[in-house]
């Protein structure tokens, strides 16, 4: 059997205006699949890059879907699914290939591996803002970066969804988060989120400030989604030995490798950690325990009401004026 659903599609790559909302046919969930009524979508930069054709994999056109992060309720499950039942609150995030499985829509079908339980106390807007940001912060800072209590961690693009999650994740284990933002406009909000210090990169010398704040030791870890030709300058803020976890490429220009050593540079990919059942279990446990005890409180910059606001929501993301996550609620 098939059901009618609404999905956000794009037929050519480009700016936010290429996104359209269309009626699509949705098959019943097959073996190992789950059908979800979507109540809210969490946006992230990867989706803007995918829409523009500049992400690390390309959309299948015409008619590509979009989106990693949704929160909703299970409507039905396919044969062999024992993990979920109709009525369960859930999130999405792991192991999604956006062209075919993108979650922007009012109803979606996903493999069970891409579905994560949502505590009943967590409403959809908060839930949609959680998984990808905290999975990346957990995997990048703790599993790959080896961040320890008492370490200083320099978090660039700290006002982003992942950056604000990284500030909270560092605090959760007793590390000291130093936030970097380009101007002073978001300084006060970043202090409220929990940053121990905030450095405005266009107004201050970041490595000099880090050396001052750490008593000339430098930051044990740099968590950076920017990369590009400025990386060697940023690396002057690293301790010796130090570690950089690069997890994005906002600079959009080739990354130059720093020449200070000993220094370990990792290129972190969340999809690698979430590819195994053991990795997903650790991420999901980290997220779920934090949501339950309040250590994880996603920072929500703006909520747009209704799927037809998706273009406006993407425009806001590209303006870079937001802090934390942008969420779109889905009407039924
Ligand atoms: N490797 C992984 O597994 C993984 C997983 C998730 C996300 N990511 C990556 O993480 C990054 C952040 O994603 P997000 O969704 O959290 O971002 P976001 O919420 O859209 O925030 C991006 C923020 O970064 C800063 N920024 C933007 N362009 C910049 C540039 N060219 N140079 C310096 N700063 C810039 C701006 O903050 P200020 O105005 O405060 O400077 C902006 O508000 C993206 O590159 C994304 O692809 C990677």
Could you describe the 3D structure shown?
With 332 residues, this protein is of the alpha/beta class. The chain is 28% helix and 28% strand. The protein has helices spanning 45-52, 98-101, 124-128, 131-144, 161-172, 187-193, 206-213, 231-234, 270-273, 277-293, 310-319, and strands spanning 2-9, 20-27, 33-42, 69-77, 89-92, 107-111, 115-117, 152-155, 176-181, 197-200, 219-224, 238-246, 263-267, 300-305, 325-329. The model has no long low-confidence stretch (mean pLDDT 96). Bound molecules: NADP nicotinamide-adenine-dinucleotide phosphate. It comes from Plantactinospora solaniradicis. This is Zinc-dependent alcohol dehydrogenase family protein. Residues 14-328 form the Enoyl reductase (ER) domain.
> How large a portion of the residues is in β-strands, by DSSP E?
25-35%
Distance between the termini: 20 Å
CATH top level of the largest domain?
A: Alpha Beta
Number of domains: 2
Q: Give the ordered list of helices and strands.
A: EEEHEEHEEHHEHEHEHEHEEHHEHE
The counted number of beta strands is 15
Major sheet details: 7 strands, mixed
Would you tell me the structural class of the helices and strands?
A: alpha/beta
Bound molecules: NADP nicotinamide-adenine-dinucleotide phosphate
Helix content: 25-40%
**CATH-defined fold name of the largest domain:** Quinone Oxidoreductase, Chain A, domain 1
Low-confidence stretches: none
Arithmetic mean pLDDT? 96
CATH architecture grouping of the largest domain = Alpha-Beta Complex
Please tell me what the overall shape is.
Answer: globular
CATH superfamily of the largest domain: Medium-chain alcohol dehydrogenases, catalytic domain
Radius of gyration: 20 Å
Number of helices: 11
């Amino acid at each position: 059997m098939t059901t009618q659903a609404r999905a956000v599609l794009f037929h050519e790559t480009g700016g936010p205006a290429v996104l359209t909302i269309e009626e699509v046919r949705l098959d019943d969930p097959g073996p190992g699949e789950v059908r979800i009524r979507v109540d809210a979508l969490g946006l992230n930069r990867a989706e803007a890059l995918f829409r523009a054709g500049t992400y690390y994999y390309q959309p299948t056109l015409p008619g590509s879907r979009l989106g990693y992060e949704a929160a909703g309720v299970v409507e039905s499950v396919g044969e062999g699914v024992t993990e979920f039942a109709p009525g369960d609150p859930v999130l999405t995030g792991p192991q999604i290939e956006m062209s075919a499985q993108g979650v922007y829509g009012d109803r979606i079908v996903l493999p069970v591996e891409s579905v994560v339980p949502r505590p009943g106390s967590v409403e959809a807007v908060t839930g949609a803002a959680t998984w990808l940001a905290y999975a990346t912060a957990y995997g990048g800072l703790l599993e790959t970066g080896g961040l320890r209590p008492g370490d200083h961690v320099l978090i660039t693009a700290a006002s982003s969804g992942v950056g604000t999650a990284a500030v909270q994740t560092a605090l959760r284990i007793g590390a000291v988060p130093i936030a970097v933002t380009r101007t002073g406009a978001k300084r006060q909000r970043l202090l409220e989120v929990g940053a121990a210090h905030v450095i405005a990169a266009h107004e201050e010398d970041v490595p000099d400030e880090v050396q001052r704040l750490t008593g000339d030791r430098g930051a044990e870890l740099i968590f950076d989604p920017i990369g590009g030709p400025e990386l060697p300058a940023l690396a002057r803020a690293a301790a010796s030995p130090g570690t950089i976890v690069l997890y994005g490429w906002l600079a959009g220009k080739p990354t130059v490798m720093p020449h200070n050593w000993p220094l370990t540079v990792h290129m972190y990919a969340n999809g690698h950690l979430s590819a195994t059942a053991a990795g997903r279990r650790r991420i999901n446990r980290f997220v779920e325990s934090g949501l339950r005890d309040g250590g994880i409180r996603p920072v929500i910059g703006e909520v747009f009401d209704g799927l037809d606001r998706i273009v406006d929501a993407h425009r806001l993301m590209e303006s870079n004026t937001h802090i934390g996550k942008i969420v779109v609620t889905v009407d039924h």
